[in-house]
Design a protein that fits this description.
Strand content: under 5%
Radius of gyration: 25 Å
Helix content: 55-70%
CATH topology of the domain at 56-118: Methane Monooxygenase Hydroxylase, Chain G, domain 1
Number of helices: 3
Largest sheet: none
CATH superfamily of the domain at 56-118: NADH:ubiquinone/plastoquinone oxidoreductase, chain 3
Shape: flat
Length: about 120
């Protein structure tokens, strides 16, 4: 039983060793010609005016997270809908619980005002 784990451990050890060797090779072989132009921060080719750090409202971040949540929901729904005829009652109940959980999250976000665009 432990022999199977030894093979996995050896594989992981060799993978990390190979990664370290490749990173060291890249570090030694990279071109080292720094100049002031290369060391500047790239901002779409336009020089920044004033402070470059701008605070965004957390609401935009929450709105994006909610979008990603429902985008992932769609990714889970498509294969389920394609295989609907071959699935049993257990899979239908599981998907109904999944949709109810997501609906609960949507209602929570709605009540908290996370979906109000300002």
């Amino acid at each position: 039983m432990l022999q199977g784990y030894a093979v996995v451990g050896l594989y992981l050890l060799l993978s990390f060793a190979l990664l370290g060797v490749v990173l060291l090779l890249w570090w030694f072989l990279r071109p080292k010609k720094p100049n002031p132009l290369k060391l500047e921060t790239y901002e779409c080719g336009v020089q920044t005016v004033g402070d470059a750090w701008v605070q965004f409202r957390a609401q935009y971040y929450i709105f994006a997270l909610i979008f990603v949540l429902f985008d992932v929901e769609a990714v889970f729904l498509f294969p389920w809908a394609v295989a609907y005829n071959q699935l049993g009652l257990y899979a239908v109940i599981e998907m109904a619980l999944f949709l109810l959980l997501l609906l609960g999250g949507l209602l929570y976000a709605w009540r908290k005002g996370a979906l109000e665009w300002a």
